[in-house]
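Q: What would this chain look like folded?
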Amino acid sequence: MQHAEYFKDFLKDAVNIDDTRLAKLESRVNAVYKALKADEEIGSIIKGKSRQGSWAQRTIIRPKSGDEFDADFLLLMDEQAVWEPRSYLNEVYNALGRHPTYSKQEHGRKCRCVWLKYAPENGVGCHLDIVPLVTLAGGRRVIVNRDNNTWEPVFGSTNPQGFTDWMKRRDQLASGQFRRVVRLMKYLRNERGSFDGVKSVILTTVLGLQVTDASALAPGTYANIPTALVNIVEDLDRWLQAQPSKPWLANPAGDGTNFDHRWTDATYRNFRDRIHSIAGAMRAAYDEPNVSKSAKEWRDLFGDKFNPPAPSKPASKTSLVGLSAGAMASSRASRSGQAG
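A: My prediction, written as structure tokens:
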């Protein structure tokens, strides 16, 4: 069975990040930006900021106790003629070190960002990833690869907004269900450890590749949350099974970058195997006509927090709509499973 109405409650109560944490995240980013903008050495070359990643795409999920969530933002900077690429990232790091507050917080450098960690609140931590985005004299917009001391992309301009726009289009094609599917799959990864090591950008991309103009033509494909979830994950399973080794994964923004560095061959093989198992389990739970058995099968996937209320009376014929919808979805998927 679908349990379509309950899936809405499950997202709201267990998966989606709460408004309080989002508001605090916004205030922290604003405070960090204000501090960097006021820095005497780099403040004058900072021209703005913008959300990036899951924060911009509205797919951040609620962190579990003892864990942390993160948010990325771009720091827009002008080119400095005497600086090499890694200088921008290093100077942002140094500016935090000069600040009376942030110098006392744990912070550091990764390949493409500076991170700043906050103390846990109610058992949940948070860190920010600050990504310098540099506008070169000729107009190109690039990010920094600190490890190689190079610009990315090598040619042309990066287009961070392009990925967000691409994802918004997937959500439109999926009748507003795509973001919900991404959150549910991230929850499955985080809470159940189903495919650890698969970065959110990878997961979002491979799920999004299954949502196409062609797949959206089949009536009912994305009719509600569980129907969209089953169809997208089954299409992803077919796509993965057709590729025994890690595929080339271009950035859907079309800016010449790719995500090859974001996962390994071993991570891909595990992900491929786990999605195959998960797709089968989702289909079984969706098609199971018994309300209690179906709820248990969904709970076996998502954990004890997935707990729909027991029916007050025997299921009617109309409550078994999941069967006919599931059969229709199977037929549709067999025609367009490789789309995208």
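DSSP finds eleven helices and seven strands in the chain.
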